[in-house]
Amino acid sequence: MSSYLECNARERIARVFDAGSFEEFLPPAARVVSPHLAQLDAPVSFDDGVIVGRGRLDGQIVFGAAQEGGFMGGAVGEVHGAKLVGMLARAVQEEAHAVLLLLESGGVRLHEANAGLIAVSEVMRAILDVRAAGIPVVVLIGGSNGCFGGMGIAARCANTVVMSEEARLGMSGPEVIETAHGVEEFDARDRALVWRTTGGKHRYLLGDCQCLVADNVGAFREAALDAIDAARGHAALTLADLDAEHLMLATRLRDFGSASEPLQIWKMLGIPDPAAVPMLDADAFTELAQPYRKGAD
């Protein structure tokens, strides 16, 4: 199976890392499950929906995690978050070559909201600790659930975000926006609009994602290797980086604050035929996008 989208978390880990090299921490045999779900008579998973461990990527020791979108949409709870934080802390202790996060999450579990919110904040702090230790953090997003909520914020704490066209990245999901503000604000049933707004192509054009690849496990692996190499030596987040990010966001609001949907933004960027963008494959789109990208490195 070559499609990243169609793989589950364990298949992605097995195919992205060097064959047979990944050692899982707290595997399902350990049966570390969420106590909150059991108290609510909700189904549990023996890995709590996330795989964490270390393996080799092109021969180098890389720590990694993969969220399982098939269990509660990859949502974060107390144990799920603690596994991520523990893996990230161990990566610092063992001076890993890099950390690779294969994210697929709808955000925090409503079943254990307070514990999940705390867990996500701890994950973000742990990612920045890894970067402060000089270890690059690369995020891969390509699952059907996208990467939303707190994990959407966590993804942007990384050095590099790699997405496919099919991937989605954002704070609030389409259904949440529609529920809170009405269908007039955002029609979650309009799939074309949803992907134009939160999908990989739009995120790449705005600078929220640094690399767009085809829906192929091999393409994600190669992009991860390139991103790690590019970040080595300057993985830490600096004040200059934050200033640049704030400037990018302020410029985005100034330039596109009046736009009501991505097609208008693509036109404002100067793209000659915005309506053709959704039909381009990853390579053709990347070539087209280069002169128009915001926040390009």
Explain the overall architecture.
With 297 residues, the chain is an alpha/beta fold. It has a domain at 9-169 and 209-236: 2-enoyl-CoA Hydratase, Chain A, domain 1 (Alpha-Beta Complex), CATH 3.90.226.10. Helix content is 43%, strand content 13%. It is built from twelve helices and seven strands. A seven-stranded mixed β-sheet has the order 1-2-3-4-5-6-7, sandwiched between helices. α5 (149-155) links the parallel β5 (137-141) and β6 (160-164). α7 (191-198) runs parallel beside α8. The mean pLDDT is 92.
Short recap of the structure:
The protein is an alpha/beta fold and 297 residues long.
List keywords for this structure.
single chain, 297 residues, alpha/beta, 2-enoyl-CoA Hydratase, Chain A, domain 1, seven-stranded mixed sheet, 7 strands
Fraction of residues in helix? 40-55%
Mean pLDDT: 92
CATH topology of the domain at 9-169 and 209-236: 2-enoyl-CoA Hydratase, Chain A, domain 1
User: What is the number of beta strands?
Assistant: 7
Global morphology: globular
List the helices and strands and how they pair.
Layout: H1 9-16, E1 23-25, H2 35-39, E2 50-57, E3 60-67, H3 78-93, E4 98-103, H4 113-132, E5 137-141, H5 149-155, E6 160-164, H6 174-181, H7 191-198, H8 200-206, E7 211-213, H9 217-231, H10 239-256, H11 262-269, H12 282-289
Parallel strand pairs: 3-4, 4-5, 5-6, 6-7
Antiparallel strand pairs: 1-2, 2-3
Helix pairs in contact: 3-4, 4-5, 7-8
